[in-house]
Amino acid sequence: MGKYVREFCRGKKRCYVFLDEIQKVYSLINPNLTDGKHILAKTSDTEIITFVDVVLGLSREKNIDLYVTGSNSKMLSTDIITEFRDKATNIQLSPLSFEEYYGYVGGSASEALYDYMQLGGMPLAVVKRAEEKKEYLRGLFETTYFKDIIEHNHLKKSESLDELCNIISAGTGELLNADKIARTFKSIKKESVDKQTVEKYIGFFKDAFIVREAKRYDLKGRAEIGALRKYYFVDTGLRNARLNFAFPDEGQMLENIVFNELCYKGYSVSVGSFDTVEKNKNGKSVRKTYEVDFYATKELRRYYIQVCADISNAETRAREERPYMLLNDEITKIIVINRPIKESLDNNGFTIIGITDFLLRYI
After folding, report:
1. For residue 172, with 0-12 CB atoms within 10 Å meaning exposed, 13-18 middle and 19 or more buried, which class applies?
2. Fewer CB within 10 A of the end CB, N or C, for the chain?
């Protein structure tokens, strides 16, 4: 293949070369050891030429602009970093953002958001007929994502992997760590899985671009804290497919979408947390931990963001605003709600904004 591409591009000023499904390139025994003959390599052979060698060789050609795609089962993101180091740029392709999705479907932004919340932005899921979308997403998870993880990591069975993925799916946006997930697994399956296995499997999900991780950040101490993390799916349709499209928690899905959109727009996103000392109803001083859904930064922009379905209820509004009241700083404080309203300021100077306005314009 490398020889063919070089000959095709020879003498041309600039060639854009796209190699799809690169993992299907067969490994050969080094031709220098076989009198120039092309002999397929066995797993036991050591002196071999692989697709990595082909790609690195073509990348040195000055007139070739090379793009390579392939299956996760053969090369995950960590492998790319290891194999190519500073010789290539790793471009992560994500599902359609809500902004991209809405630009395609148009119509009512609120209705588009509801559909996007349910079925996500995987390109084929967007263009397929309505009755085909759910089946496509179920199959995509099983035949592509899970198959790749099992093959790449040489797993003999997937039962534990399946259940752990379901636990993370159901706990989207909740603070989790390996110990908590292991306990949940035991309560569901009535069998044990150790902390190390949980951490390893979460690493598989992250590396296969199924989930992203949001770490906790101390908003007063200005430092990353603790082992608890939140996990969000790169696509809400894939997440819902794992749970057979049971009615999703609106708050979880809104959080997931906001997190993804911030990442798409280049923000660094953490889960905000801080401790404070307050008087309880008995007048005793107690330490209390407050959380802010997201602390997002990008260049000079810094936002605290709370996401909720509605704040018309006084108790809900007070709960969402309480952390902001205790944070005595100049960072913009935003409450994103699932209502079709434009940006406004409340009496405390907090920004109240509808989610579609936030996603399509504000960020």
Report:
1. buried
2. N
